[in-house]
Amino acid sequence: MDTILLLLHTGPDGGLTRAARETVAAGQQILRDMPGASLVAGVVGGQVQPAIEQLASSGASRLLAVEGPAFGPARHATDAAAAAALIRSAQATLVLAAGTSRWSRALPAAAHRCQGCIDTHATGWAMVDGSLAITRWYYRQRMEAQLRRTPRPWLILFDPGIFPPWDGAPGPAQAQRVEVDADPNLQRTRVEGVQAPAAQAQTIRPDADLLLVAGAGWTKKQADGRAHVQEAEALLLDFLAKSRASLGSSKSLVDLSGEGEAVLSFLTHLNQVGQTGSTPRHPKGLATCCHGEEPHAVGWRFIHERRAINLDPGCGWARGKADVLYVADAFAVLAAVNARLAQAAPPAPGTPG
Ligand SMILES: Cc1cc2nc3c(=O)[nH]c(=O)nc-3n(C[C@H](O)[C@H](O)[C@H](O)COP(=O)(O)OP(=O)(O)OC[C@H]3O[C@@H](n4cnc5c(N)ncnc54)[C@H](O)[C@@H]3O)c2cc1C
Fold first, then answer.
1. Domains of the chain, each with CATH number or no CATH
2. If DSSP codes are grouped into helix, strand and coil, which group holds residue 99?
3. Site to substitute for ligand 1 among 296, 311, 315, 326, most atoms within 8 A of C-beta
4. Which band of pLDDT confidence, cut at 50, 70 and 90, is reported for residue 195?
């Protein structure tokens, strides 16, 4: 009989992160289709009690924890040791974890130490002839494969955003401690701090409900024969600040900077969506001033509801790539939408402007 281990690391507050709660949802779904299997949760962190209490109603029959200051920061050596200890203690045959940067670095080592195997970037699962299979994409999201493995333990890292995060009621719960020797040799790497862009400069927001895509049209000559790049910047930044959407871009727009043309200053190649860019996951997407050519639109594979604004009624979005195409001037539409958003959420008293 299978033992499914949910391998979870805590957030900075000791609680479960969104990605960890998605892993819990994955485990619950898989457990339902595996008669006789059991669910165990294993938590790693500096202090884990908030996470353990959140797991009280998760359906896990055992709660295990590796806890201590050495296990607070993300560090390959201590994380791999903690994960391997939890897998052994649970006698896990299947190990589910979120594809966070922390687990993606440490779990291949844990799989090797437990003589198991690991798959990353899993995007789904199914039962095939009574055994678990996972799905993942290859070749820039153009081919989907279904995989089964015979070695155990089998570690599976699911990409974030696949499962709705579990949100069960917390309650009193205690974890069984799993001791791991945090040898000083394992702690030679120290996390000295986190460098992150200021909140307003951070335009890529994987958890946002909406992806706003900006295309090269924002920098092109408009009806008056002139380009309006500064106006475009202001409109897009205003929309992003008000909606908290994530910002994507077409390749043409981010490439323009390399050609010395006027571009939107806050865009980098990290924003690029498409065949040679990213394939983000958001419930909704809105493409603006972007033509919707296949190499771009292929990056929208995981966007559920797609809309586009383009002056051209014959653009790519009109050919089955969007659910709704607004044939309109994106400058005018975004200005009107920003005005509505401002009405919906007036600035707090005392806020300038
Ligand atoms: C091997 C290969 C890989 C590629 N990979 C990618 C990739 O990963 N991602 C990607 O994006 N592209 C990729 N491309 C490029 C892709 O084919 C397109 O060239 C690119 O997506 C076009 O960008 P765009 O739509 O922003 O620009 P354009 O094609 O220039 O379109 C601009 C659009 O803006 C519209 N517009 C202008 N003004 C307004 C206005 N005021 N209101 C509304 N609409 C307006 C125009 O009607 C036009 O449709 C790849 C190409 C190749 C060959």
1. 3-187 (3.40.50.620), 199-344 (3.40.50.1220)
2. coil
3. 296
4. confident
